[in-house]
Design a protein that fits this description.
binds adenosine-2'-monophosphate; alpha+beta; single chain; four-stranded antiparallel beta sheet; Cyclic Phosphodiesterase, Chain: A
Length: about 170
């Protein structure tokens, strides 16, 4: 199974991202638009593993206190368009703790530098219109271990475990 670790977004933040996607579509942009239920912020990508149990155990040892996240701006990696998050030391710290817990348990993961983004469109075609995102904020009180499966109509993400913050 193919695994990754992510923050699942609040309804309010997803609504703001859907609004941005709609503006892009109305501006003539085409491509594979991420569906609302698939919107997430990846903290670490693990990839194929035979068994989720060691990953669940490693993640259970990660502790953090709740923090807030704020949407801030759009960007792209080639034809993958995303919405970014404002600089957030607690977010960076959570990603670091998760990656350290995986490493200490001998679970391989993608070591690419953490670059917090929510993918909005894959294989985007068209010019980036003057869409602004920003302002939408959410409280992060949990992260999740997610399984990714290729469905008939796109990716299907399933939550295998949810790890909540300790109130600090
Ligand atoms: P992306 O949206 O920028 O493609 C599930 O595939 C999630 O893991 C997506 O959020 C994806 O980011 C992210 N991810 C990070 N590294 C990845 C990799 N090496 N291969 C596939 N997905 C990766």
């Amino acid at each position: 199974m193919r695994l990754f670790i992510a923050i699942n977004l609040s309804e309010g933040m997803k609504a703001a991202l859907i609004d941005a996607q709609n503006e892009m579509y109305d501006g003539g942009v085409r491509g594979g638009f991420t569906t609302e239920e698939n919107m997430h912020l990846t903290l670490a990508f693990i990839g194929e593993v035979p068994d989720a149990e060691p990953v669940l155990e490693a993640l259970a040892a990660v502790s953090f206190t709740p923090f807030s996240l704020c949407l801030e701006g759009l960007g792209c990696f080639g034809d993958l368009w995303w919405a970014g998050m404002g600089a957030s030391p607690p977010l960076e710290a959570l990603a670091r703790r998760i990656r350290r817990a995986l490493a200490e348990s001998g679970i391989p993961f993608d070591r690419k530098r953490f670059s917090p983004h929510v993918t909005l469109i894959r294989r985007a075609r068209g010019d980036m219109p003057g869409v602004t995102v920003g302002g939408a904020a959410m409280n992060v009180d949990a992260f999740s271990l997610m399984r990714s499966d290729r469905g008939r109509n796109g990716m299907i993400y399933t939550e295998l475990g949810r790890f909540t913050a300790k109130q600090g």
